[in-house]
Design a protein that fits this description.
The chain is mostly helical and about 100 residues long. The protein is built from 3 helices and 2 strands; from the N terminus they run ααββα. α1 packs antiparallel against α2 (about 45-60). The protein is elongated. It starts with 15 loop residues before the first helix and ends in a 5-residue tail after the last helix.
C-alpha cells in the first residue's frame, strides 16, 4: 500500500524548479510595483532603492516555496544522509 504498491504515490503539487520560477516571477512583479510607486518621488536613488527593497522582501518571504513541509513532506535525506539512519546501520561506515 502506498508509494509503489496498490495505491499510486501522490504527485507533488509544485516541483522545486517550478517553485523557483514562480519565486522569480514574484520578485519581478515586486520590482515593477516598486518602479511604479517611485514615479512621483523627486529623490534620485528612490528609483532603485524602493524596487530593490520590495524584491528582497519577496525573496525573503518566499524562501520556503517549493520545499516539503516538516509535518507533511516525505523528507528522506538531510545533509546527504538518510533522516531515519540509526547507529546500528552506521557501524562500519567512516562518516
Amino acid at each position: 500500500m502506498g508509494e509503489g504498491g496498490v495505491v499510486r504515490a501522490r504527485a507533488p503539487v509544485v516541483t522545486r524548479d517550478q517553485a523557483q520560477l514562480v519565486r522569480l516571477l514574484l520578485m519581478c512583479v515586486a520590482w515593477a510595483v516598486g518602479q511604479m510607486l517611485t514615479i512621483g518621488l523627486p529623490i534620485d536613488l528612490a528609483g532603485f532603492v524602493v524596487p530593490a527593497a520590495l524584491a528582497v522582501g519577496v525573496y525573503v518571504v518566499t524562501d520556503d516555496l517549493g520545499r516539503p513541509r516538516v509535518g507533511g513532506g516525505d523528507v528522506k535525506y538531510w545533509r546527504g544522509r538518510r533522516a531515519d539512519d540509526d547507529e546500528q546501520r552506521r557501524r562500519g561506515r567512516w562518516n
